[in-house]
């Protein structure tokens, strides 16, 4: 059973729009998406989309803007985050998508002009869900707020530079000196 889609905006491909589509999430949709993405809140979510049928599928391009509230990964304090991003997606029929995945095997080489590809079935694609998924990729799951350094100092956490993959090499270099 598929979970409910929080931000659904179906587009009927039999009557492709010729103009830009504006998508705005309402309060209920934003709250549901915030729960799905494990963030405090989404105070605004807007997107534009231009939909065009091509020989490679249905291509969608536009912008996403959002205002979020996230918890700092270090201090756990809530802080605002602004997201503004351009995106490009390609929708292909489910059968074509599965055939391409089988043909690709275990490794997939992506070219510079390859787009995120989403499968759809029937004559309708869900642009709202595609926007939600694209937004999810823009959210930093380990975002640090303005109080992160102070929290590190207070609780004795090291900085990423002091505990990252090269920290041991840095310690060896310090011992040699």
Observed structural traits:
two-stranded antiparallel sheet, alpha+beta, 177 residues
Total beta-strand segments? 7
For the terminal residues, how far apart are their CA atoms?
62 Å
C-alpha Rg (nearest Å): 21 Å
Strand arrangement across the biggest beta sheet: 2-3-4-5-6
Write up this protein.
By secondary structure, the chain is of the alpha+beta class. The protein is built from six helices and seven strands, in the order ββαβββαββαααα. The strands form two sheets. It has a five-stranded mixed beta sheet with strand order 2-3-4-5-6. It is extended. It starts with 9 loop residues before the first strand and ends with a helix. The mean pLDDT is 83. It comes from Blastomonas fulva. Pfam families: YceD (PF02620). This is DNA-binding protein.
Nutshell version of this structure?
The chain has helices at residues 27-37, 94-104, 127-138, 148-155, 160-163, 167-176, and strands spanning 10-12, 21-24, 41-54, 57-71, 78-93, 116-120, 124-126. It has 177 residues and is an alpha+beta fold. Strand 3 and strand 4 form a beta hairpin.
């Amino acid at each position: 059973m598929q979970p409910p889609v929080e931000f659904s905006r179906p587009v009927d491909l039999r009557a492709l729009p010729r103009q830009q589509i504006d998508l705005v999430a309402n309060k209920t949709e934003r709250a549901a998406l915030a729960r799905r993405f494990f963030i405090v809140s989404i105070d605004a979510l807007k997107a534009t989309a231009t939909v065009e049928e091509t020989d490679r599928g249905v291509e969608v391009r536009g912008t996403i803007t959002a205002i979020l509230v996230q918890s700092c990964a270090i201090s756990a304090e809530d802080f605002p985050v602004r997201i503004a991003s351009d995106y490009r997606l390609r929708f292909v029929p489910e059968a074509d998508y599965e055939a391409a995945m089988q043909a690709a095997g275990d490794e997939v080489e992506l070219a510079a002009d390859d787009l995120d590809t989403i499968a759809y079935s029937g004559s309708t694609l869900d642009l709202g869900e595609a926007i939600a998924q694209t937004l999810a990729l823009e959210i930093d799951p380990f975002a640090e707020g303005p109080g992160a350094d102070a929290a590190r100092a207070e609780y004795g956490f090291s900085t990423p530079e002091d505990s990252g993959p090269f920290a041991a090499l840095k310690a060896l270099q310090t011992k040699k000196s």
